[in-house]
UniProtKB/TrEMBL annotation:
Keywords: Plasmid. This is ABC transporter substrate-binding protein. CDD domains: PBP1_ABC_unchar_transporter (cd06325). It comes from the Bacteria. The keyword Transcription regulation does not apply. It holds the Pfam family ABC_sub_bind. InterPro entries: ABC_transpt-TYRBP-like. Gene3D superfamilies: 3.40.50.2300. It comes from Microvirga ossetica.
Protein backbone atom coordinates (compact mmCIF):
# COMPACT_ATOMS: atom_id res chain seq x y z
CA UNK A 1 0.00 0.00 0.00
CA UNK A 2 1.18 3.48 -0.78
CA UNK A 3 2.66 5.64 1.97
CA UNK A 4 0.00 8.32 1.65
CA UNK A 5 -2.66 5.67 2.36
CA UNK A 6 -0.93 4.65 5.57
CA UNK A 7 -0.66 8.28 6.64
CA UNK A 8 -4.31 8.84 5.81
CA UNK A 9 -5.25 5.72 7.74
CA UNK A 10 -3.49 7.11 10.81
CA UNK A 11 -5.37 10.39 10.50
CA UNK A 12 -8.66 8.50 10.19
CA UNK A 13 -7.96 6.32 13.20
CA UNK A 14 -7.07 9.35 15.29
CA UNK A 15 -10.08 11.33 14.08
CA UNK A 16 -12.76 8.74 14.84
CA UNK A 17 -13.83 8.18 18.40
CA UNK A 18 -15.07 4.67 19.24
CA UNK A 19 -18.87 4.44 19.32
CA UNK A 20 -20.49 3.17 22.45
CA UNK A 21 -21.80 -0.38 22.10
CA UNK A 22 -25.17 0.46 23.69
CA UNK A 23 -26.89 3.09 21.57
CA UNK A 24 -30.51 4.20 21.17
CA UNK A 25 -32.38 2.32 18.43
CA UNK A 26 -33.74 5.60 17.05
CA UNK A 27 -30.33 6.98 16.08
CA UNK A 28 -29.73 6.88 12.33
CA UNK A 29 -26.85 4.50 11.58
CA UNK A 30 -24.47 5.18 8.71
CA UNK A 31 -23.63 2.23 6.44
CA UNK A 32 -21.01 2.36 3.67
CA UNK A 33 -21.33 -0.33 0.96
CA UNK A 34 -18.35 -0.98 -1.33
CA UNK A 35 -18.68 -3.15 -4.42
CA UNK A 36 -21.57 -5.09 -5.91
CA UNK A 37 -23.83 -7.40 -3.95
CA UNK A 38 -23.55 -11.02 -5.06
CA UNK A 39 -27.25 -11.23 -5.95
CA UNK A 40 -27.49 -7.81 -7.62
CA UNK A 41 -29.29 -7.52 -10.91
CA UNK A 42 -28.57 -4.08 -12.28
CA UNK A 43 -31.33 -2.87 -14.68
CA UNK A 44 -30.73 -0.32 -17.46
CA UNK A 45 -31.72 2.44 -15.01
CA UNK A 46 -28.53 2.71 -12.97
CA UNK A 47 -30.34 4.84 -10.39
CA UNK A 48 -32.36 1.79 -9.32
CA UNK A 49 -31.61 0.32 -5.87
CA UNK A 50 -28.65 -1.98 -5.43
CA UNK A 51 -28.03 -4.51 -2.67
CA UNK A 52 -31.79 -5.17 -2.47
CA UNK A 53 -31.57 -8.65 -0.90
CA UNK A 54 -29.09 -7.35 1.69
CA UNK A 55 -31.21 -4.28 2.54
CA UNK A 56 -34.43 -6.32 2.74
CA UNK A 57 -32.78 -8.66 5.25
CA UNK A 58 -31.46 -5.70 7.26
CA UNK A 59 -35.01 -4.33 7.40
CA UNK A 60 -36.20 -7.63 8.85
CA UNK A 61 -33.62 -7.17 11.59
CA UNK A 62 -34.79 -3.69 12.48
CA UNK A 63 -32.69 -1.40 10.28
CA UNK A 64 -34.58 0.37 7.48
CA UNK A 65 -33.28 2.96 5.03
CA UNK A 66 -34.93 6.31 5.67
CA UNK A 67 -35.99 5.32 9.18
CA UNK A 68 -32.91 4.52 11.24
CA UNK A 69 -30.39 3.74 8.51
CA UNK A 70 -28.55 5.85 5.92
CA UNK A 71 -26.69 4.00 3.16
CA UNK A 72 -23.90 5.19 0.85
CA UNK A 73 -22.49 3.09 -2.01
CA UNK A 74 -19.22 3.01 -3.90
CA UNK A 75 -18.54 0.83 -6.93
CA UNK A 76 -15.31 -0.49 -5.45
CA UNK A 77 -13.00 -0.24 -8.47
CA UNK A 78 -9.59 -1.53 -7.36
CA UNK A 79 -7.56 0.46 -9.88
CA UNK A 80 -6.42 2.86 -7.17
CA UNK A 81 -4.54 5.89 -8.41
CA UNK A 82 -5.99 5.68 -11.93
CA UNK A 83 -7.94 8.39 -13.74
CA UNK A 84 -10.64 7.99 -11.12
CA UNK A 85 -8.99 7.37 -7.75
CA UNK A 86 -11.81 5.64 -5.88
CA UNK A 87 -9.55 4.95 -2.90
CA UNK A 88 -9.39 8.71 -2.27
CA UNK A 89 -13.15 8.97 -2.75
CA UNK A 90 -13.83 6.22 -0.22
CA UNK A 91 -11.44 7.83 2.26
CA UNK A 92 -13.36 11.08 1.84
CA UNK A 93 -16.64 9.21 2.45
CA UNK A 94 -15.25 7.73 5.64
CA UNK A 95 -14.05 11.09 6.94
CA UNK A 96 -17.35 12.76 6.05
CA UNK A 97 -19.82 10.04 7.10
CA UNK A 98 -17.99 8.32 9.96
CA UNK A 99 -19.88 5.09 9.09
CA UNK A 100 -20.91 2.69 11.83
CA UNK A 101 -20.12 -0.28 9.57
CA UNK A 102 -18.38 -0.77 6.22
CA UNK A 103 -19.70 -3.68 4.13
CA UNK A 104 -17.86 -4.97 1.05
CA UNK A 105 -17.77 -7.95 -1.31
CA UNK A 106 -14.14 -7.23 -2.27
CA UNK A 107 -11.28 -8.95 -0.47
CA UNK A 108 -8.97 -6.25 -1.89
CA UNK A 109 -10.95 -3.46 -0.26
CA UNK A 110 -11.39 -5.41 2.97
CA UNK A 111 -7.64 -6.08 3.22
CA UNK A 112 -6.67 -2.49 2.42
CA UNK A 113 -9.20 -0.86 4.74
CA UNK A 114 -8.49 -3.26 7.57
CA UNK A 115 -4.81 -2.30 7.34
CA UNK A 116 -5.42 1.41 7.89
CA UNK A 117 -8.68 1.73 9.85
CA UNK A 118 -8.96 0.17 13.27
CA UNK A 119 -12.01 1.98 14.65
CA UNK A 120 -14.73 1.06 12.12
CA UNK A 121 -16.12 -2.50 11.89
CA UNK A 122 -15.83 -4.16 8.47
CA UNK A 123 -18.22 -6.91 7.33
CA UNK A 124 -17.02 -8.70 4.19
CA UNK A 125 -17.97 -11.61 1.96
CA UNK A 126 -14.53 -12.57 0.70
CA UNK A 127 -13.29 -15.19 -1.71
CA UNK A 128 -10.57 -17.29 -0.03
CA UNK A 129 -9.99 -14.68 2.75
CA UNK A 130 -7.07 -16.56 4.32
CA UNK A 131 -5.26 -17.02 1.00
CA UNK A 132 -5.97 -13.36 0.16
CA UNK A 133 -4.54 -12.28 3.55
CA UNK A 134 -7.78 -10.69 4.72
CA UNK A 135 -7.78 -12.79 7.91
CA UNK A 136 -5.48 -15.32 9.57
CA UNK A 137 -8.15 -17.90 10.45
CA UNK A 138 -11.87 -18.66 10.25
CA UNK A 139 -12.67 -19.73 13.80
CA UNK A 140 -12.07 -16.29 15.25
CA UNK A 141 -12.46 -12.95 13.53
CA UNK A 142 -9.42 -10.70 13.30
CA UNK A 143 -9.77 -7.35 15.07
CA UNK A 144 -12.50 -5.23 13.48
CA UNK A 145 -13.36 -7.53 10.55
CA UNK A 146 -15.81 -10.42 10.17
CA UNK A 147 -18.24 -11.82 7.61
CA UNK A 148 -18.74 -14.67 5.15
CA UNK A 149 -15.79 -16.70 3.85
CA UNK A 150 -16.32 -18.01 0.32
CA UNK A 151 -13.70 -20.69 -0.24
CA UNK A 152 -14.06 -21.75 -3.88
CA UNK A 153 -10.70 -23.38 -4.46
CA UNK A 154 -9.29 -25.45 -7.33
CA UNK A 155 -11.45 -28.46 -6.44
CA UNK A 156 -14.59 -26.38 -6.92
CA UNK A 157 -13.48 -25.12 -10.33
CA UNK A 158 -12.43 -28.64 -11.29
CA UNK A 159 -15.97 -29.75 -10.51
CA UNK A 160 -17.33 -26.92 -12.68
CA UNK A 161 -14.97 -27.90 -15.49
CA UNK A 162 -16.15 -31.52 -15.28
CA UNK A 163 -19.80 -30.45 -15.50
CA UNK A 164 -19.11 -28.06 -18.39
CA UNK A 165 -17.26 -30.70 -20.44
CA UNK A 166 -19.98 -33.23 -19.67
CA UNK A 167 -22.57 -30.82 -21.09
CA UNK A 168 -20.36 -29.74 -24.03
CA UNK A 169 -18.13 -32.75 -24.79
CA UNK A 170 -16.76 -31.19 -28.00
CA UNK A 171 -15.32 -28.18 -26.15
CA UNK A 172 -11.55 -28.39 -26.57
CA UNK A 173 -10.34 -24.99 -25.35
CA UNK A 174 -11.88 -23.26 -22.33
CA UNK A 175 -11.54 -19.55 -21.60
CA UNK A 176 -11.45 -18.75 -17.88
CA UNK A 177 -13.10 -15.36 -17.36
CA UNK A 178 -11.17 -14.28 -14.29
CA UNK A 179 -10.71 -11.50 -11.75
CA UNK A 180 -8.58 -8.37 -11.80
CA UNK A 181 -5.63 -10.42 -10.56
CA UNK A 182 -4.35 -13.76 -11.79
CA UNK A 183 -6.04 -16.81 -10.28
CA UNK A 184 -3.56 -18.60 -8.03
CA UNK A 185 -4.98 -22.06 -8.69
CA UNK A 186 -4.57 -21.77 -12.45
CA UNK A 187 -1.70 -24.26 -12.64
CA UNK A 188 -3.79 -27.05 -11.06
CA UNK A 189 -6.77 -26.20 -13.24
CA UNK A 190 -4.56 -26.28 -16.33
CA UNK A 191 -3.26 -29.76 -15.38
CA UNK A 192 -6.74 -31.10 -14.79
CA UNK A 193 -8.07 -29.65 -18.04
CA UNK A 194 -5.19 -31.33 -19.87
CA UNK A 195 -6.10 -34.67 -18.29
CA UNK A 196 -9.60 -34.22 -19.72
CA UNK A 197 -8.22 -33.54 -23.20
CA UNK A 198 -8.89 -29.80 -23.13
CA UNK A 199 -6.86 -26.62 -22.88
CA UNK A 200 -7.67 -23.65 -20.65
CA UNK A 201 -6.49 -20.04 -20.67
CA UNK A 202 -7.18 -17.24 -18.18
CA UNK A 203 -8.46 -13.83 -19.29
CA UNK A 204 -8.22 -11.17 -16.58
CA UNK A 205 -11.29 -9.09 -15.73
CA UNK A 206 -12.13 -5.99 -17.72
CA UNK A 207 -15.51 -4.28 -17.87
CA UNK A 208 -15.07 -4.24 -21.65
CA UNK A 209 -16.62 -7.67 -22.05
CA UNK A 210 -17.05 -7.22 -25.79
CA UNK A 211 -13.27 -6.96 -26.19
CA UNK A 212 -12.74 -9.86 -23.78
CA UNK A 213 -15.02 -12.23 -25.69
CA UNK A 214 -13.54 -11.15 -29.01
CA UNK A 215 -10.08 -11.98 -27.64
CA UNK A 216 -11.29 -15.35 -26.30
CA UNK A 217 -12.64 -16.35 -29.70
CA UNK A 218 -9.47 -15.18 -31.45
CA UNK A 219 -7.48 -17.44 -29.12
CA UNK A 220 -9.68 -20.40 -30.08
CA UNK A 221 -12.02 -20.67 -27.09
CA UNK A 222 -14.89 -23.12 -27.55
CA UNK A 223 -16.37 -22.74 -24.05
CA UNK A 224 -16.19 -20.33 -21.10
CA UNK A 225 -15.74 -20.87 -17.37
CA UNK A 226 -16.44 -17.82 -15.17
CA UNK A 227 -14.51 -17.23 -11.96
CA UNK A 228 -16.50 -16.23 -8.88
CA UNK A 229 -15.99 -12.48 -8.76
CA UNK A 230 -18.65 -9.94 -7.72
CA UNK A 231 -17.54 -7.65 -10.57
CA UNK A 232 -19.25 -10.00 -13.04
CA UNK A 233 -22.68 -9.98 -11.36
CA UNK A 234 -23.98 -6.60 -12.60
CA UNK A 235 -22.96 -7.54 -16.16
CA UNK A 236 -24.76 -10.89 -16.24
CA UNK A 237 -26.97 -9.89 -19.17
CA UNK A 238 -23.98 -8.71 -21.25
CA UNK A 239 -21.94 -11.82 -20.50
CA UNK A 240 -24.80 -14.19 -21.33
CA UNK A 241 -25.63 -12.26 -24.51
CA UNK A 242 -22.01 -12.41 -25.70
CA UNK A 243 -21.78 -16.13 -24.93
CA UNK A 244 -24.89 -16.74 -27.05
CA UNK A 245 -23.62 -14.41 -29.79
CA UNK A 246 -20.39 -16.41 -30.11
CA UNK A 247 -22.18 -19.74 -29.47
CA UNK A 248 -20.00 -20.51 -26.45
CA UNK A 249 -21.26 -22.92 -23.77
CA UNK A 250 -20.75 -20.97 -20.54
CA UNK A 251 -20.50 -22.30 -16.99
CA UNK A 252 -20.48 -19.88 -14.08
CA UNK A 253 -20.97 -19.96 -10.30
CA UNK A 254 -23.90 -17.52 -10.63
CA UNK A 255 -27.50 -18.64 -11.14
CA UNK A 256 -28.20 -15.08 -12.33
CA UNK A 257 -26.04 -15.69 -15.43
CA UNK A 258 -27.96 -18.85 -16.30
CA UNK A 259 -31.25 -16.98 -15.90
CA UNK A 260 -29.86 -14.37 -18.33
CA UNK A 261 -29.23 -17.04 -20.96
CA UNK A 262 -25.92 -18.76 -20.16
CA UNK A 263 -25.84 -22.54 -20.48
CA UNK A 264 -25.40 -23.56 -16.85
CA UNK A 265 -24.23 -22.62 -13.36
CA UNK A 266 -22.91 -24.45 -10.36
CA UNK A 267 -22.33 -22.45 -7.21
CA UNK A 268 -23.45 -21.45 -3.77
CA UNK A 269 -26.70 -19.68 -2.90
CA UNK A 270 -25.49 -16.10 -3.48
CA UNK A 271 -28.68 -14.53 -2.15
CA UNK A 272 -27.96 -16.45 1.04
CA UNK A 273 -24.52 -14.85 1.16
CA UNK A 274 -26.07 -11.38 0.94
CA UNK A 275 -28.58 -12.27 3.65
CA UNK A 276 -25.76 -13.56 5.83
CA UNK A 277 -23.89 -10.29 5.36
CA UNK A 278 -27.02 -8.44 6.47
CA UNK A 279 -27.41 -10.59 9.57
CA UNK A 280 -23.80 -9.93 10.60
CA UNK A 281 -24.16 -6.22 9.81
CA UNK A 282 -27.29 -6.01 11.97
CA UNK A 283 -25.50 -7.68 14.86
CA UNK A 284 -22.57 -5.28 14.59
CA UNK A 285 -24.93 -2.30 14.31
CA UNK A 286 -26.59 -3.60 17.48
CA UNK A 287 -23.32 -3.51 19.40
CA UNK A 288 -21.72 -6.94 18.85
CA UNK A 289 -17.96 -6.71 18.27
CA UNK A 290 -16.65 -8.24 15.02
CA UNK A 291 -14.12 -10.22 17.09
CA UNK A 292 -17.09 -12.04 18.68
CA UNK A 293 -18.38 -13.19 15.28
CA UNK A 294 -16.34 -15.95 13.59
CA UNK A 295 -16.42 -16.09 9.80
CA UNK A 296 -19.22 -18.24 8.41
CA UNK A 297 -18.96 -20.44 5.31
CA UNK A 298 -21.78 -21.23 2.86
CA UNK A 299 -22.47 -24.94 2.48
CA UNK A 300 -25.32 -25.23 -0.03
CA UNK A 301 -24.50 -25.61 -3.73
CA UNK A 302 -26.90 -25.78 -6.68
CA UNK A 303 -26.66 -26.82 -10.32
CA UNK A 304 -28.93 -24.87 -12.69
CA UNK A 305 -29.35 -25.79 -16.37
CA UNK A 306 -30.83 -23.66 -19.16
CA UNK A 307 -32.68 -25.97 -21.52
CA UNK A 308 -33.41 -23.27 -24.11
CA UNK A 309 -29.74 -22.30 -24.39
CA UNK A 310 -28.80 -25.96 -24.76
CA UNK A 311 -31.24 -26.20 -27.69
CA UNK A 312 -29.83 -23.01 -29.23
CA UNK A 313 -26.30 -24.45 -29.01
CA UNK A 314 -27.45 -27.83 -30.39
CA UNK A 315 -26.52 -29.50 -27.10
CA UNK A 316 -28.37 -32.15 -25.13
CA UNK A 317 -27.81 -32.42 -21.39
CA UNK A 318 -26.97 -36.04 -20.51
CA UNK A 319 -29.19 -37.89 -18.05
CA UNK A 320 -26.49 -37.73 -15.38
CA UNK A 321 -26.65 -33.91 -15.37
CA UNK A 322 -30.44 -33.85 -15.48
CA UNK A 323 -30.53 -36.12 -12.41
CA UNK A 324 -27.97 -33.99 -10.56
CA UNK A 325 -29.59 -30.62 -11.38
CA UNK A 326 -31.35 -28.63 -8.68
CA UNK A 327 -33.26 -26.54 -11.22
CA UNK A 328 -33.82 -26.50 -14.98
CA UNK A 329 -34.93 -23.33 -16.73
CA UNK A 330 -37.61 -24.34 -19.19
CA UNK A 331 -37.55 -23.63 -22.89
CA UNK A 332 -38.81 -20.22 -23.90
CA UNK A 333 -37.37 -18.40 -20.85
CA UNK A 334 -34.11 -17.25 -22.42
CA UNK A 335 -34.03 -13.45 -23.02
Amino acid sequence: MRRRDLILGGVLAAGFAPRASAQPKERVRQLLLIGNAWSDRVPPDLASPRWSVFLDELRRHGYAVGVNLAVSWREGVEDWGGPRDEWAEVMDDIRRLSPDVIVTTSHGWARALNAVISMIPIVVSALSPIEQEVISGLTRASGNITGIAIDLGPDFYSKQLDLLLEAAPKASYVALLGSERAYRGMRQLWREAKQRGAGIQEFLYSNNYEALFSSMVREGATAVLVLADANHVPHADRIARLARQYRLPLMSPFRRLTEAGALMSYGIDWSGVDRGLAVYSARVLGGTKPSELPFEQPSRYELVLNLQTADDLSLTFPGSLIAFADDMLERGRTP
